[in-house]
Design goal:
Shape: globular
Distance between the termini: 44 Å
Strand order of the largest sheet: 1-2
Largest sheet: 2 strands, antiparallel
Radius of gyration: 20 Å
Order of helices and strands: HHHHHEEHHHH
Strand content: 5-15%
Structural class: mainly alpha
Number of helices: 9
Amino acid sequence: MYRFPHEFDQVDELVSSVPENATPGFLVWRLSMKWRVAVDRALAPLGLTHAQYSLVASLYGMHRAGHRPSQRALADHTGLEPLYVSKLARALEAAGTVDRTRDPADPRAVQLSLTKDGREVTRRAIGVVHDLLDQLLEPLGGLDGERTKAFSRELATLLDVPLDPRSELDPRSEKAQRKNEHPENEPSEKEQS
């Protein structure tokens, strides 16, 4: 397995000073930023960013399963915004990694596929990211560790929880609009702590 150089130590220094009472949301955010930076750096020699990798690796897996997804289907699969997937796909097309073609069944839809070069770069990128994740997950026993499997199940549980469209998290909800109309009802700084 390839061990990544200690250039990631700077990322670790930035992210390792975690406040004692950090919330789970803060920790998930910091961890995702740390991993994104690490993946960006590891994939730079292959000419890919983390976001582009998420698109081509997903596309690679979908093709292996016999699917030729539309940009919209790939957006749904990756959790990326459709407009962002379109932007990424155009950049990857310009780089010769992805082909974009009109769907014969729906002329408004664009289907995506990897080019021959795109498949080769994606295979190499998957190997790089696999090795990097094994290294990043080493404290939990690596990619195949029982703690990593339990961690993955917990993350999947959280990802499966739908956002309640009536909650304060959705700015279009009545509850959020009422709160914005009456800011005096918001908890004080002391109550928020």
